[in-house]
Write a structure and sequence with these properties.
The longest helix is centred in the last third of the chain and has 15 residues, at about 55-70. With about 70 residues, this protein is α+β, with helices and mostly antiparallel strands. The chain has helices spanning about 5-15, 55-70; strands spanning about 20-30, 35-40, 45-50. The protein is built from two helices and three strands, in the order αβββα. A three-stranded antiparallel sheet has the order 1-2-3, with helices on one face. GO terms for molecular function: RNA binding. Keywords: RNA-binding.
Length: about 70
Protein backbone atom coordinates (compact mmCIF):
# COMPACT_ATOMS: atom_id res chain seq x y z
CA UNK A 1 0.00 0.00 0.00
CA UNK A 2 1.32 3.42 -0.96
CA UNK A 3 1.73 5.80 1.92
CA UNK A 4 -0.23 8.84 0.76
CA UNK A 5 -0.46 10.22 4.30
CA UNK A 6 3.33 10.47 4.52
CA UNK A 7 3.55 12.08 1.07
CA UNK A 8 0.93 14.64 2.05
CA UNK A 9 2.61 15.40 5.39
CA UNK A 10 6.01 15.73 3.71
CA UNK A 11 4.60 18.12 1.11
CA UNK A 12 3.10 20.42 3.74
CA UNK A 13 6.19 20.27 5.95
CA UNK A 14 8.34 21.30 2.98
CA UNK A 15 5.96 24.21 2.36
CA UNK A 16 6.12 25.10 6.08
CA UNK A 17 2.33 24.88 6.06
CA UNK A 18 1.62 21.72 8.06
CA UNK A 19 -0.73 23.75 10.26
CA UNK A 20 -3.16 23.96 7.31
CA UNK A 21 -3.66 20.17 7.20
CA UNK A 22 -6.33 18.59 9.40
CA UNK A 23 -8.37 15.40 9.62
CA UNK A 24 -11.94 14.64 10.64
CA UNK A 25 -12.64 11.00 11.55
CA UNK A 26 -15.89 9.31 12.45
CA UNK A 27 -17.47 5.87 12.35
CA UNK A 28 -20.96 4.67 11.54
CA UNK A 29 -22.79 1.39 11.75
CA UNK A 30 -23.06 -1.35 14.35
CA UNK A 31 -19.94 -2.43 16.23
CA UNK A 32 -19.56 -5.60 14.13
CA UNK A 33 -19.77 -3.65 10.82
CA UNK A 34 -18.12 -0.29 11.50
CA UNK A 35 -17.43 1.92 8.51
CA UNK A 36 -14.89 4.69 8.98
CA UNK A 37 -15.10 8.01 7.19
CA UNK A 38 -12.09 10.30 7.20
CA UNK A 39 -11.98 13.75 5.66
CA UNK A 40 -8.73 15.47 4.76
CA UNK A 41 -9.01 19.23 5.11
CA UNK A 42 -6.59 21.82 3.81
CA UNK A 43 -7.17 25.28 5.26
CA UNK A 44 -10.56 24.08 6.45
CA UNK A 45 -11.70 22.91 3.00
CA UNK A 46 -12.37 19.20 2.40
CA UNK A 47 -9.97 17.96 -0.28
CA UNK A 48 -10.49 14.22 0.18
CA UNK A 49 -12.89 11.79 1.79
CA UNK A 50 -12.19 8.12 2.40
CA UNK A 51 -14.63 5.45 3.56
CA UNK A 52 -13.39 1.99 4.57
CA UNK A 53 -13.66 -0.80 7.11
CA UNK A 54 -10.57 0.51 8.93
CA UNK A 55 -9.67 4.02 9.98
CA UNK A 56 -6.18 3.69 8.47
CA UNK A 57 -7.52 2.68 5.05
CA UNK A 58 -10.05 5.50 5.06
CA UNK A 59 -7.34 8.02 5.98
CA UNK A 60 -5.06 6.73 3.21
CA UNK A 61 -7.85 7.17 0.66
CA UNK A 62 -8.62 10.68 1.90
CA UNK A 63 -4.91 11.57 1.62
CA UNK A 64 -4.76 10.10 -1.91
CA UNK A 65 -7.72 12.21 -2.99
CA UNK A 66 -6.17 15.32 -1.44
CA UNK A 67 -2.92 14.73 -3.34
CA UNK A 68 -4.90 14.41 -6.58
CA UNK A 69 -6.74 17.65 -5.75
CA UNK A 70 -3.35 19.32 -5.26
CA UNK A 71 -2.21 18.13 -8.69
CA UNK A 72 0.00 15.17 -7.77
Amino acid sequence: MANYITQLNNYFQAQKASHTLSWVEYSTGPSHEIKWTVQCKISGEVKGTGVADSKAAAKEEAARQALVALGF
